[in-house]
Write a structure and sequence with these properties.
- 3 copies of one chain form a homotrimer.
- With 268 residues, the first copy, chain A, is of the alpha/beta class.
- The first copy, chain A, has a single domain, classed as Ribokinase (UDP-N-acetylmuramoyl-L-alanine:D-glutamate ligase, 3-Layer(aba) Sandwich), CATH 3.40.1190.
- Chain A is 54% helix and 14% strand.
- Chain A has 11 helices and 9 strands.
- In chain A, strands 2-1-3-4-5-6-7-8-9 form a 9-stranded mixed beta sheet, sandwiched between helices.
- In chain A, helix 4 links the parallel strand 3 and strand 4.
- Chains in contact: A-B, A-C, B-C.
- At the A-B interface, helix 2, strand 2, helix 3 and helix 10 of A face helix 2, helix 5 and helix 10 of B.
Chain lengths: 268, 268, 268
Amino acid sequence: MTSYGQSAGEILDRIRKSKPVVHSITNYVVMNSTANVLLAMGASPIMAHAPEEMEDICRISSSLVINIGTLSKPWIESMHLAGRLAAVMKKPYLLDPVGSGATKLRTDTAVRLIESSLPNVIRGNASEILSLSPQGATTRGVDSVHSMEDAVDAARTVSRSLGTVIAVTGERDLVTDGERSLIVSGGHPLMGYVTGTGCAASVIIGAFLAEEKDSVVATAAALAFFGLAAERAAAVENKPGSFWIRVLDELYAVTPDELARKTRVSEA
Amino acid sequence: MTSYGQSAGEILDRIRKSKPVVHSITNYVVMNSTANVLLAMGASPIMAHAPEEMEDICRISSSLVINIGTLSKPWIESMHLAGRLAAVMKKPYLLDPVGSGATKLRTDTAVRLIESSLPNVIRGNASEILSLSPQGATTRGVDSVHSMEDAVDAARTVSRSLGTVIAVTGERDLVTDGERSLIVSGGHPLMGYVTGTGCAASVIIGAFLAEEKDSVVATAAALAFFGLAAERAAAVENKPGSFWIRVLDELYAVTPDELARKTRVSEA
Amino acid sequence: MTSYGQSAGEILDRIRKSKPVVHSITNYVVMNSTANVLLAMGASPIMAHAPEEMEDICRISSSLVINIGTLSKPWIESMHLAGRLAAVMKKPYLLDPVGSGATKLRTDTAVRLIESSLPNVIRGNASEILSLSPQGATTRGVDSVHSMEDAVDAARTVSRSLGTVIAVTGERDLVTDGERSLIVSGGHPLMGYVTGTGCAASVIIGAFLAEEKDSVVATAAALAFFGLAAERAAAVENKPGSFWIRVLDELYAVTPDELARKTRVSEA
């Protein structure tokens, strides 16, 4: 067991005991599935987007997850408000920039959210993360990232220029604050045949951030936990519908001890 | 078989034969799962929130369920319109005040909906129901409700002051119109690890109200039906993802005869 | 193996290889399930409704599916914009007129969408399709369609008057461009106990349209594929919750060869 494994087990144990409230402003597609992810693992989801109740919701929440998957103007305003409230109330806040780089609206929204209230963690795939790079910080596109070393370099550059923890999820996951960089193994290719697995990773990180102040450690632990649940599910189900139901089962079933033993996190 | 069991079986039989249309204005998180609940049990869901079609929808519906889980201003206006139309067209109407008491917006919205068109039934957990108590009707908070007797007293007080049937769901469920009070047994702790189980209870009551004029009897029967389906599901699945899929299966499989025999409703 | 079977297998093979991006503007109830349908079968869903990103989304999409299940004014405007962009950019476009005929808002919205940008295919049940008939094109209501021959006649009339391919799904499915008319066998009555099966058929057609220019052939192939997956699911699961999960599994598992052999399409 590594010290990262031990930390991961301890954070999961705290989540199961304190059932932190994770506030999500997220896309319509994954609301049901990410609420189920949080409940299955032992956390408490709240989904709310009305500006009129944002302050009340922020006060009773332990962390905030903003996901820009199905944007519209009123929702963007609510996201800005929630981000600012999280900053003021010192609640950890994760941004999932779904589709940033694919449309101007998404890239602009992600960039402005980062400017108006810096998230503790930004999680995306490689192209989403590279799209957030301030002009000049990186001149390379996604296609030029050919190896894990290249990916680590690019993520570090984005992390340093934005001043926040970056998580790049893919075949292996990468977490960096610009100095420390961790590589997390786990997961399964079937995740690509189910909607909202990236969004699920984000809310799981949201729950871990609620119980661990070191954002790099919390993020790596959350990704190790999700990856382990997915691997266990894929060991018994090899098609996407049944696989996802089993992932929910495993998020409930994985114990802190198992997570501690099976976390595979290494320094990059 | 009690007379409550017999009624429950007869109502379920009528639902399976007439497939009543249940109109829901509900939260984004549970739309898919509550539509599946209604279809699996043999009813017909309609989800619609545009004011322009509210009158047409109300006319073809047999009952209305309003759930305030993910509010915004335009949706609140639609809820008021739907409630008033249900009153005018004499369609039974249930209110699910999700999160009332947790934010001012939710409490105010629930209270104003009750004022503008009195629901036939309000279903919530203990804290949601207590938050609806008119000032002075109860001075006790949720934490002071220590026994089923206390809960019955509190629910009766709210029911009398609002003039409507109250259903408080929890480990055991309680249904009261201020005079008659029924306790319904059933369900399983795994329901706490799945999103939308309370919302599912609400739409099932909505379907039962469409086929039974006595709201206390209809509500208790619906909760007995849902509790039985959950117990049967939990007998074969002990993790939340698989459990919920099995609940949908059992809502389809439970027969009116089985429901009649296994309904456990007692007078408080 | 018929030539229709061969075509169906070849289109599925192309989908699995090129993973076409299918843009949906759809109802809240089915967003999660139709995204999962597209991913399981090997396509790539995008859900987006903001007018600000519609042009960017249209540019990166291979086809468009508009579904009017939970309308509101801003969404109707986005649907018009997306339809016009699809016409300009020559992307195939399917309209699913959910509930047309049931409310004036839905009928009007469907009719106006057809006027503002003619879809390549319209898929609905018999009553939805008949509601789209221009005044006088058919004087018969749904109840007067007593046989498959009547249904073929009615669908042909609507197809000719609108100038687009019509798909009427039911116990057997019917696809016509006014000249050629195909009947597709497959499916299972359990589909009536799950929400969004019609909407699932629509997005599957959307994926097939992305890879086959002959809209009649693409639509019949898509319906044969969905029907085969449903039959295979129903062969092992006889209750709606488990059945639907298994349908997702089968959409992933059915091979192009199996589809080619088992497609049952006949000329009407």
